[in-house]
Amino acid sequence: NPQLDRLLEQGREEIDPTRRAAIYADIFEMLREHPSVVPIRYHENLVAVSNDLRGFTLSPAGFHRFADVYFGE
Question: 46 near 60, Cβ under 8 Å?
Answer without folding.
Answer: no
